[in-house]
Input
Amino acid sequence: MSEQAINYEELVESYENRLLNQLRSHGVDLEFLEMWVPDEDSVSSILNMAEAAGAFGVEAFVIRVNRETLPSARTAELKDALAPISDVSIEDHEDHCLVHISSIKA
Output
């Protein structure tokens, strides 16, 4: 896939900043994430993101996640969580991974 990856940590930071500093529309720049609320658990948070994308009609996206946020040991857990609603492949890199989420069900 040649899509631009969404940086998970920057997204969460932006969300938290807007939540503290804006009264309304504290969502992020990507419209489908207006319905998304980050979770402290990265697997749940990414699953919530995929569900928001599906509800908005987005069929696919790529997210870049630091290994500190999503350790390699949790990769299978993320795949299992996403399996009922989408296809997922994970590209491993030394300090991060790229999570390719596609065929998202509405």
